[in-house]
């Protein structure tokens, strides 16, 4: 727990104090956010606000991960913990960094062209597929070689699983490695686009992501405390995952970094996360679902992202089939803007929805554990 707390604190402080530096740097570089002319009129006043702020909390997460590992080196040798960096960290941080890199290219092209159209849809889609495929292969083809103090193998799991999962793996839903890689790619695409579509109002995606990441931090730490690699627990109610403490550490670091960034990103935003941050967070959240073996739980924990994404899907289908729009504008948050809601009201109320989804998801996770031990 100490290492997780250290990671959270370091990430928060780095993000809190380095974001103002990023604001000054991106302002000097004239890296302002282009605003769509067809968007809500109140957004025109945000034109020129620095973007690509996701760089700050992505770097803060990576640095905090290192700090957390330094704290782990002080733990007793007999305690089950991951002291050395693992494939799990490579996959999770890799998904965050490289998904963020796809978003950075998009942001860079927007700034360079002075237009809201950056990387084209095919280019962004190809980048998401490539990142998901690469780290999906790594997640499924590199099993753990962890041993206990007597040299006996304690955990030979891979980061990902060849079965679909809800609270844990569902043995009846075996899909094989190729099928699992395809699922991982789909989850990466869904999560990155979901967070990206939610990132339309000051602080909205950042605050919602904090809740989801915090939930995964709690899930992973609970799995670590009831881990099948620990001989103190029986298979009846332990979790067959790989490196749960590592997952909790990274989730905590990312959540802490986002809270520090939110200080500057809340209304009125001094900086936007841009596609750099949105795709980076989406990639990490997808990795969390995969590594904790809770892929089918993600739509509940990330319920706000699902609702906003579905509003876009519904709008497109309705307009193409009937020529009519269901919403004044999509994504959904802009519909309420045009209906006269203030930006702050929308953000707070959508945060409440995000919190409800997280609460339901955590409730389902814990209730399954209670049912298993009674």
UniProtKB/TrEMBL annotation:
Membrane topology according to the record: Multi-pass membrane protein
Cofactor(s), by name: Mg(2+)
Catalytic activity: UDP-N-acetyl-alpha-D-muramoyl-L-alanyl-gamma-D-glutamyl-meso-2,6-diaminopimeloyl-D-alanyl-D-alanine + di-trans,octa-cis-undecaprenyl phosphate = di-trans,octa-cis-undecaprenyl diphospho-N-acetyl-alpha-D-muramoyl-L-alanyl-D-glutamyl-meso-2,6-diaminopimeloyl-D-alanyl-D-alanine + UMP
Residue intervals passing through the bilayer: 6-27, 48-67, 87-105, 125-142, 178-197, 204-224, 244-264, 271-290, 296-319, 346-366
PANTHER family documented for this protein: PHOSPHO-N-ACETYLMURAMOYL-PENTAPEPTIDE-TRANSFERASE (PTHR22926), PHOSPHO-N-ACETYLMURAMOYL-PENTAPEPTIDE-TRANSFERASE HOMOLOG (PTHR22926:SF5)
Family: Belongs to the glycosyltransferase 4 family. MraY subfamily.
Protein name, as recorded: Phospho-N-acetylmuramoyl-pentapeptide-transferase
Species the sequence originates in: Micromonospora solifontis
């Amino acid at each position: 727990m100490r290492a997780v707390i250290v990671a959270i604190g370091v990430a928060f402080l780095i993000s809190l104090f380095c974001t103002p530096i990023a604001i000054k740097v991106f302002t000097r570089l004239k890296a302002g956010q282009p605003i769509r002319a067809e968007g809500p009129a109140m957004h025109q006043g945000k034109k020129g606000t620095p973007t690509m702020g996701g760089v700050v909390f992505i770097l803060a997460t990576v640095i905090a991960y290192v700090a957390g590992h330094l704290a782990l080196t002080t733990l007793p040798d007999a305690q089950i913990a991951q002291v050395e960096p693992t494939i799990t960290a490579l996959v999770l941080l890799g998904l965050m960094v490289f998904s963020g890199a796809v978003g950075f290219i998009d942001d860079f092209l927007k700034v360079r062209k002075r237009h809201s159209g950056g990387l084209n849809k095919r280019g962004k889609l190809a980048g998401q597929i490539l990142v998901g495929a690469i780290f999906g292969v790594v997640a499924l083809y590199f099993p753990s070689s962890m041993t206990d103090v007597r040299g006996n193998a304690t955990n030979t799991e891979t980061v990902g699983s060849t079965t679909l999962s809800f609270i844990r793996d569902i043995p009846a839903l075996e899909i094989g490695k190729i099928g699992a890689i395809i699922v991982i790619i789909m989850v990466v695409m869904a999560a990155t686009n979901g967070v990206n579509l939610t990132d339309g109002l000051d602080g909205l995606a950042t605050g919602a992501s904090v809740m989801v990441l915090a939930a995964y931090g709690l899930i992973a730490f609970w799995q670590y405390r009831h881990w099948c690699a620990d001989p103190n627990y029986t298979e009846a109610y332990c979790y067959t995952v790989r490196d749960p403490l590592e997952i909790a550490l990274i989730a905590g670091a990312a959540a802490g970094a986002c809270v520090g960034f939110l200080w500057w990103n809340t209304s009125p935003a001094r900086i936007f996360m841009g596609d750099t941050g949105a795709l980076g967070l989406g990639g990490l959240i997808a990795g969390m679902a995969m590594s904790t073996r809770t892929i089918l739980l993600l739509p509940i924990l990330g319920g706000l992202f699902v609702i906003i994404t579905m509003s876009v899907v519904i709008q497109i289908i309705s307009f193409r089939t009937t020529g009519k729009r269901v919403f004044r504008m999509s994504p959904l948050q802009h519909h309420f803007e045009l209906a006269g809601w203030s930006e702050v009201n929308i953000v707070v109320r959508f945060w409440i929805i995000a919190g409800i989804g997280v609460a339901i998801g955590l409730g389902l996770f814990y209730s399954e554990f209670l049912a298993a031990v009674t």
